[in-house]
Amino acid sequence: MTFAISEYGHWEKVHSYLVIGDEYAALIDTGIGICNIKRVVDQLTSLPIKVITTHVHWDHIGNHGLFDEIYVHEFEKDWLENGMPGLPIEVIRRDVIRDITKPLPESFKIEEYEPFRGKPTALLRDNEMIDLGNRILTILHTPGHSPGHLCVYEAEQGYLYTGDLLYKGTLFAFYPTTDPLLFVKSVGKISRIEHITKILPGHNEMDLNKNFITEVNRACQDLLNKGLARHGSGVHEFKDVKIYF
Fold it and tell me: How many CA atoms lie within 13 A of 193 on its CB side?
């Protein structure tokens, strides 16, 4: 079984995914960390949990500290251990509590909120496979939104967990730690996967299918081609582009 664990009371509308095999369960991201996601996970499975980190941003690693096995791409090992560079804790805490539509738990204190920092159990690389027992997840390195961003693909089911590479809304690839050209290449990479029955994004709406990838890829290629035509490499100008879906 596969469960989406969603945080709809927050402006980020974050989704984490629990993928249950016969021997292990994978938890793809652990949310913001306002509430204890492990309490939900423990109600759904008693199997050992492998936490797969799509990328090391605060809204995807909030409950990492509640689990023993944590996996991250090798390019973001340093972020996981030492924190994301250039992002003050004051900025993070402001974003954690803004535009919340549901009451916060009494135990939650924003002044004590800190993004997880710790050593991963192991590092992940492109095309690595994780066997949960009758369910195999393939790790796809899809940089752009962040250097070590990962998508997770389950070929048998046709499920593609896209993290922050792909979702409805504003696709972000214009921060100092992002790379819009790598972002475009990564979108192109997942668009070439033939068997996709369901896209499971890290934010917002969940009714996405393969056609959405095709649409985003077409828009990215159009923007890239226009940038190249007007500015040669187009790198600096393209860094200011936001893509809306």
Answer: 29
Closest CA to 202 of 37, 54, 45: 54
- Torsion, Cα 20 52 129 142, to 10 degrees, reads 130
Q: How far apart are CA 163 and CA 172, in angstroms?
A: 12
Distance (Å) of CA 6 to CA 31, 101, 203: 8, 14, 9
Contact 171, 245 (CB under 8 A): yes
What's the token pair of residue 50? 């492998």
Report, as ranges of residue numbers, the positions in the chain whose pLDDT lies below 70: 173-176, 227-245
SS3 per-residue string spanning 107-122: CCCHHHCCCCCCCCCE
Q: What is the pLDDT of residues 2-58, one digit of tens each?
A: 999 999 999 999 999 999 999 999 999 999 999 999 999 999 999 999 999 999 999
Instruction: Report pTM.
Output: 0.91
29 in Cβ contact with 53 (< 8 Å): yes
